[in-house]
Amino acid sequence: MLENKSSFNEKGELHGIQYYYTDKKLTGKEYYKEGKIQKSESYYQNGTYAGVMNYDNNEKLDGTQIFYHPNGQLKEKSKYKSGELIEIQQYFENGDKKYEYDKNGIKEYYPGEELKSLKEMKGYELNGISCDFTEKGTIKNIKYIENGKILGLKEYIEIKSSAEFRENEVALSVGEMQKIDEFENNYISKIDKLLENLINKQKKVIKGELFKEKESKEKTR
């Protein structure tokens, strides 16, 4: 059952804190000043704080907006200016990053914060590299975009293999490749990192063996 407790000023305008209940449990508050909403807060049925939204004098979203998961972990944090979204970050229930958006681009993540997609932007419009990744960290496809038009495209066939370091194969490559090639040359995948770690570990083992061998020879002198 929905209930609410409202307060008004002498002009009959909503003014002060308005309370909202569901089955006698507080589910929301709205803060008004002379008939205009300033802020709203919401709660889950178990009483956990769900989030807050802030408004400007024109009742448009303004400033920082924050929402939480039922377990209390941060779910979403965004920033608005006069109703326009400026930036946003979203998170999984365990606190890992899920989604990021600002004037420079968009990033999406798999659970564990492995990059799922990357989209470069200029002035909040897609412009530059747009790339999708597999959960293994390899590239699915890359697009190069200018002024809303796809000028270059490269797609891969994902190789289903038990080999942990098997790279995907190129399926399609058309259009402008310079920017795409530059991105690929600079991108360090999950597989690249694993290989680098293995090589570094192997170097340490070899270095350790050489040190032991040298130390052994010195003792026999």
Structural key phrases:
alpha+beta, 18% helix, 221 residues, 15 strands, 15-stranded antiparallel β-sheet
What is this structure, in a nutshell?
The protein has helices at residues 178-186, 190-220; strands spanning 2-5, 16-22, 25-33, 36-43, 49-54, 63-68, 74-81, 84-91, 97-102, 105-109, 115-122, 125-133, 139-146, 149-157, 169-175. The chain is α+β, with helices and mostly antiparallel strands and 221 residues long.
Could you explain how this protein is built, in words?
The chain has 221 residues and is α+β, with helices and mostly antiparallel strands. 18% of the residues lie in helices and 49% in strands. The chain has helices at 178-186, 190-220; strands spanning 2-5, 16-22, 25-33, 36-43, 49-54, 63-68, 74-81, 84-91, 97-102, 105-109, 115-122, 125-133, 139-146, 149-157, 169-175. The protein has a 15-stranded antiparallel beta sheet with strand order 1-2-3-4-5-6-7-8-9-10-11-12-13-14-15. The longest helix is centred in the last third of the chain and has 31 residues, at 190-220. The chain is elongated, with a radius of gyration of 27 Å.
